[in-house]
């Protein structure tokens, strides 16, 4: 019996036509089974039913330019985007004086540049960017927005601040403060010192056990009672402190979950290297714990950004409050105008929240790649 041994490899055959191409992707992702196929068909039917009237209202029948709301009140008129354009300054700055709005624009531009510098992972001089954002930028923002007689800038009381300006101040300040304070609370809750542990647990449980509205009312009404009248916090600073403290308690629990997910061997290995407690946390434990809970951290940031709308209850003129107030203008009153204002508000919050979500996914993927190298 003679055995035959092939001396050259068999040529590679192309994959079956049913496993590649657009049809294969649609089948695998939308129709992998009977239940998924039913839900896919129901979803397609819903989109067919919902998209045409929505598209007609927002685009086809929309009023893009008009001197007042008369055209938007006409029968068959769609979304009144002319109203959004005419009220854009009010939505952005509130009642901030028109001739001084350049100060707000400078703060927006500088803040955007510094945040982009920090978020671009491969950008150089991250330490310089962090120092500018966390130290220099707050001073610049306070001086420009509030004003300074020494620099010849008129004082603009916070009662006149509003719109997107106040919303971004609340959200950015809360996010920047809640993460480090939440980390400190999470570490305090795991501390071996009873006073530190019980104080951290008490703060976290109290903040998590009451509604945010209660915290805002307490911050607005009770904070001035604990300090002399001349030292009473500004009316904008009071809810800002309440929002930041409230978010810190939830952030602490997110970080604590990451700390508990770290294997005990990591702690023992760090101790074996002779690192003290701050070094162990800063160099070994916290980087791993925070990487694990990135989805939870970003989810807390998104919730905080949306919860800033609650500050309107204590008289703060945030973006949503500006939209709600602008619709009462008799010149622009109308059902489609009101609907357009709320659609614009929804798009504003969606863009910011979706951007944070997409960025966190990109960071997760990059960290996953670096761990598998």
Give a summary of the structure in a few sentences:
The chain has helices spanning 22-30, 34-60, 81-86, 88-93, 101-119, 126-146, 164-189, 194-208, 212-221, 237-261, 264-272, 277-292, 294-307, 319-326, 335-371. It has 373 residues and is mostly helical.
Mean pLDDT: 86
**Class by helix and strand content?**
mainly alpha
Tell me about the biggest sheet?
none
Beta percentage is under 5%
Fraction in helix: 55-70%
Question: Which spans of ≥5 residues are poorly predicted at pLDDT below 50?
Answer: none
Q: What is the end-to-end distance?
A: 50 Å
Count of DSSP strands: 0
User: What Rg do the Cα atoms give?
Assistant: 27 Å
Helices and strands, in N-to-C order?
Answer: HHHHHHHHHHHHHHH
Number of helices: 15
Shape: globular
